[in-house]
Design brief:
Blueprint: H1 3-11, H2 26-32, H3 47-56, E1 68-71, E2 78-84, E3 87-94, E4 97-106, E5 111-116, H4 125-133, E6 136-139, H5 141-151, E7 158-161, H6 165-173, H7 176-185, H8 187-208, E8 215-218, H9 229-235, H10 237-249, E9 253-257, H11 265-272, E10 276-280, H12 290-297, E11 302-307, H13 309-312, H14 318-330, E12 338-342, H15 352-365
Parallel strand pairs: 7-8, 8-9, 9-10, 10-11, 11-12
Antiparallel strand pairs: 1-6, 2-3, 3-4, 4-5
Helix pairs in contact: 4-8, 6-8, 7-8, 10-11, 14-15
């Protein structure tokens, strides 16, 4: 099988010849190849990143830029991002007011930390609700096909949907603490905001649903330490279920980017009809071992991840890295709904030889 055929087989419920290998090498590539990092993302095929994937032999699936534009026909609505002296600013203007977010580049972590959240209080929620009501979507499938052509058998691009309403608040634009207080103090305002974001996202989904992609990803960065079952049931479950239903009706699949504590949430995702839990990270970085993850998820949910950043990065050892990979691959015997990947992005401090080891390790310990 070709590398991307293995991924396709797992999504289709078939057993491939070996566990597929997916890697998000984009962050490692930018840091270690001294590529300027702009949060607006790639606007075309990044040949250096393509070459890196070909050197490693790992399927590329995310961080390829946006496959659609969001715009408004209302002249009083604007959504503008700009970069000035390592500060990335997003500014939203509607007839109800203007708000902005500031993120500052950190050269050591090669990332942008939030200096000012977009939303400071629930009084600003109507600005976002107005924006969501007036956003439209214009697909850019030429970019998708360009990445496919460049990557060849290493291409399996996921198409991202924006943050869900709950993820928009907690994981991105308001922060955990402020969102929790808002839920406790003004639950109806929170529900209106979440609903407005989700309705907009479903409109975006309908606009791209007939596109060439096979799998859509929601990058909500879910973490069950702070996003409890009560939170999931109240703000997340129905939305994920509806997105999965619409995708499945078109023969497509849904992945949700977890990237946090997965205890509990794996079972909840499976109940919603989600096909894949992406960026799942086992012990020792989080609570569950790979075997426990499979037990919680059940046999049908695809588990994609397996290597904690603390093991992949330079504070880990080669022996610990190899053992971690083996433990993850062992779970294929319980269910072939398995993908070998980093817990999230390949960390910027991962030694190159460790990345290069992965295809051989998967071929040796991941065959069926």
């Amino acid at each position: 099988m070709n590398p991307n055929e293995r991924v396709r087989a797992v999504y289709q419920g078939r057993k491939p010849d070996q566990v597929p290998l997916l890697l998000d090498l984009s962050h490692w590539y930018k840091k270690n190849r001294n590529v300027p990092f702009n949060l607006t993302g790639f606007t075309g095929v990044e040949q250096g990143l393509v070459d890196l994937h070909k050197q490693i032999g790992a399927v590329s699936y995310v961080e390829m830029g946006s496959f659609y534009d969001l715009y408004s026909d209302d002249p009083e609505v604007s959504l503008v991002s700009s970069m000035d002296h390592d500060v990335f600013t997003t500014r939203i203007t509607t007839p109800l007011g203007t708000i902005h977010e500031e993120r500052v580049f950190n050269a050591d972590s090669y990332s942008y930390g939030i200096r000012k959240n977009l939303l400071q209080s629930t009084d600003e929620f109507p600005i976002i609700e107005y924006l969501m009501e007036h956003l439209h979507c214009r697909p850019k499938w030429e970019l998708y096909r360009s990445w496919q052509a460049s990557l060849g058998e290493l291409a399996y691009p996921y198409v991202p949907l924006p943050y869900s309403g709950s993820g928009y608040l907690m994981a991105r634009y308001m922060g955990v603490e402020a969102t929790v207080y808002a839920i406790l103090d003004e639950p109806e305002r929170v529900r209106r905001l979440v609903q407005a974001v989700n309705v907009c996202n479903l409109r975006i989904l309908d606009a791209i649903l007939d596109g060439p992609f096979e799998t859509l990803i929601i990058s909500d960065n879910y973490d069950s330490n702070v996003q409890t079952k009560e939170f999931f049931d109240g703000y997340v479950r129905d939305y994920y279920t509806e997105v999965a239903r619409r995708l499945h009706a078109k023969g497509k699949y849904l992945a949700v980017h977890v990237d946090g504590e997965s205890r509990g949430v794996l079972g909840w995702l499976a109940e919603c009809g989600v096909d894949c839990a992406d960026a799942v990270t086992p012990h020792p970085m989080f609570a569950l071992t790979p075997a426990q993850m499979r037990a919680v998820a059940g046999p049908g949910l695809i588990l994609s991840g397996g290597i904690p950043a603390t093991v992949f990065g330079n504070i880990g050892s080669d022996a610990a890295f190899i053992e971690c990979v083996k433990r993850w691959l062992d779970t294929r015997l319980a269910s072939p709904r398995l993908i070998m990947a980093a817990g999230d992005q390949v960390p910027t401090d991962a030694p190159f030889h460790r990345i290069a080891m992965l295809p051989e390790l998967v071929a040796k310990y991941g065959r069926y």
